[in-house]
């Protein structure tokens, strides 16, 4: 078991990376602009044995996805600057990241928003507010489908 918490600045962005799991456990990239929400989901995933990297916007998400190649991305769709829809489209269009499942986190419960997220390339959906256990279950399902 390894515990690591790194905070670094790159290209004017602060990046967070946490690990409290064996190095062979799945890596989840948590993308949310609200610090409290991002930290809550990250801590819940850590408790369940996942490794976690964090991003606060779409641009950071793309940079970290390309450099870390996470097993799954938990993507808030309403982000400042580049939103989660656009970030997901770019990730799914990139050969380096197109295979990574994206679980959309959205406050938009209408079917049109879910259809829009699906069209952007999201593989699964969680409507916020969501209990951490619900998010962990969706992440597990996304990873298990990826391995099939």
Q: Explain this structure to me?
A:
- There is one protein chain.
- With 148 residues, the protein is α/β, with parallel strands linked by helices.
- The protein has a single domain, classed as Rossmann fold (3-Layer(aba) Sandwich), CATH 3.40.50.2300.
- The protein has helices at 35-47, 58-68, 84-93, 111-120, 132-147; strands at residues 4-10, 13-19, 27-31, 51-55, 72-76, 102-106, 124-127.
- Strands 1-2-4-3-5-6-7 form a seven-stranded mixed beta sheet, with helices on both faces.
- Helix 4 links the parallel strand 6 (102-106) and strand 7 (124-127).
- Helix 2 runs parallel beside helix 3 and helix 3 packs parallel to helix 4 (111-120).
- The radius of gyration is 14 Å and the shape is globular.
- The protein starts with a strand and ends with a helix.
CATH topology: Rossmann fold
Q: SSE string, helix = H, strand = E? A: EEEHEHEHEHEH
What is the C-alpha radius of gyration, as a whole number of Å? 14 Å
The helix-and-strand class reads alpha/beta
CATH superfamily: Response regulator
CATH architectural label: 3-Layer(aba) Sandwich
Helix content: 40-55%
CATH class, please? Answer: Alpha Beta
* Mean of pLDDT: 85
Strand order of the largest sheet: 1-2-4-3-5-6-7
How many H/I helices? 5
The largest β sheet comes out as: 7 strands, mixed
Strand content: 25-35%
List low-pLDDT spans: none
């Amino acid at each position: 078991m390894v515990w690591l918490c790194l905070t670094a600045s790159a290209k004017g962005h602060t990046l967070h990376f946490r690990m409290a799991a064996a190095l062979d456990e799945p890596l989840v990239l948590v993308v949310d602009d609200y610090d409290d929400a991002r930290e809550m989901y990250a801590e819940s995933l850590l408790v369940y044995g996942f490794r976690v990297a964090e991003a606060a916007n779409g641009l950071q998400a793309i940079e970290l996805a390309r450099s870390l190649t996470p097993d799954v991305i938990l993507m808030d769709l309403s982000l400042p600057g580049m939103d989660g829809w656009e970030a997901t489209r770019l990730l799914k269009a990139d050969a380096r990241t197109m295979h990574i499942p994206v679980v959309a986190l959205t406050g938009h419960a209408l079917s049109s928003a879910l259809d829009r997220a699906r069209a952007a390339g999201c593989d699964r959906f969680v409507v916020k507010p969501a209990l951490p256990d619900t998010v962990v279950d969706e992440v597990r399902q996304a990873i298990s489908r990826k391995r099939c």
